[in-house]
Amino acid sequence: MKEVKRALITGINGQSGSYLAEFLINKGYEVFGTIKRNSVSENQTARLDSIYDKIKDNLIYADLLDVPSLLHALKKSNPSEVYNLAAQSHVRISFDQPVYTAQATGIGTLNLLEAIRIYDPSIKMYQASSSEMFGNSIDADGYQRETTPLNPVSPYGCAKVFSYNICRNYRNSYGMYISNGILFNHESPRRGTNFVTNKVVKSAVRIKLGMEKKLVLGNLNATRDWGHAKDYVEAMWMMLQKEESGDYVCSTGVSHSVLELVQYVFGKLEMDWTQYVSSDDKFMRPEELEDLKGDSSKLRNETGWTPKYTFETMLDEMISHWLEYYSDIKK
Fold first, then answer.
1. What pLDDT digit, counting tens, does each position of 291-309 carry?
2. Catalytic positions, please?
3. Which of 20, 153, 217, 243 could form a disulfide with 287 if both were Cys (CB 3.0 to 4.6 A apart)?
């Protein structure tokens, strides 16, 4: 009888965590996940509704800043794979909470590494690294890849660089299997609505339905390489199936500006964006990140990964989600 694989996902109730949990369950895994205690518990597992009955007994209260809770999570789940997706993940908010971001997003990874090293160093670990680590460092051809210098421009990016490097250090020092996925922006209907993609789509739909009048954004000229979270969680899994661990950029290789995002979404809803959208300095970052575009050749060549969604089909799905959501509310 084939042994069932067990996986532990930190931050399982986030956007990527929920998609990864669904993906792994479909692969036959027994999935465990860590969540933080939330006073509004009714909303805490909303992204997990489709699989809640399959994982409700495998949800474990833990915090990356609390090593004993991480050891407890490892003991309860006894995983062969750990996916570290938990973090303070909002770049703009990292300027408001730099110390907490450094602790949760940086030191938290070190705590998890130590917990794994103590409990069972043979466990494979995936670390959610970020394109924000590059900052405004761009290769001559306009892309960012595994060899591009890391020059972050936010507390979040700085914390992720520490996590990235400490993972490499543990891999080299202790022979642990640890892969860094340097993921570029990944979106979906489950993305937090304080992130620009879902903020734009949700507000545009509300404007279309007469529920809102204006949308205020920050830098409309910033460009990002946006992919779908569903595609990217498959890449996470593929990285851990390789014989040896490594570091991999995951991206679509195509970038779009925030303005192009706005134009597409409002155009699909048959509205003139110039009548509704404005820019305000309060949404600007103290140090702006202008351009992100990734070269994921290494990942594609070594694993066969390729994204199924395009920028447009991803946004179409998000638009459909919010139209359906508000039509249900109005019934």
1. 789 999 999 999 999 999 9
2. 130, 132, 156
3. 153
